[in-house]
Amino acid sequence: MTGKRNANCSKCQVHKCQKNEKDKLPGFCPMRHESALEEASSLLEKHKEFYVKSSVLEKKGYEVWPRAREVIEFIKDMGYKKVGFAFCAGLKKEAALFAEILEAHEIDYASVMCKVGGVDKTLSGIPEECKLKPGRFEAQCNPIAQALVLNEEETEFNIILGLCVGHDSLFMKYSDALCTTLITKDRATGHNPAVALYLKDSYMASRLDLKKK
What we know:
Blueprint: H1 34-44, H2 48-60, H3 67-78, E1 83-87, H4 92-104, E2 109-113, H5 143-152, E3 158-161, H6 167-174, E4 179-183, H7 194-198
Parallel strand pairs: 1-2, 1-3, 3-4
């Protein structure tokens, strides 16, 4: 690799990768990480079927299928016999609706809510004052347990519905199966986090703690 600048595709204006051009790359272009790209090609061979079928799926339902349908069709294309989904207690209704969709497509599944284990937040070091309702029992989120339960259920593919920031990371780390996300929780936008990006210079500026110049 040449150059010491951080990879930063978000600042790119030329997008040479989309044009198959390898000359005069910007200093921040990640295509300068040649060893990483070579390793990625090698690793991709281990997941070739998964990658190819997920890429073909993009064409099948482009601008037509909602993400829930994409997840369903991918499960079918991969021939998974049993899938799992981990959901936030705040999305019990959405979890029930997704379960109905899976059942309608005759897909076997196991599901685990984040409060599994019924352990009070303070037992893992969360301060009492950081509970939503201090002074009362409040079950902690348990993403590692969610993952381990689904591992024991021998699910082949796991779906995340609204796990907290960081908790989703732990779930993915300890899940034996590869994962995807159906819902990203964002209580301020009705679970549509892209809204905050589109409105960062107006209505969402204060909520993003952006200082006005």
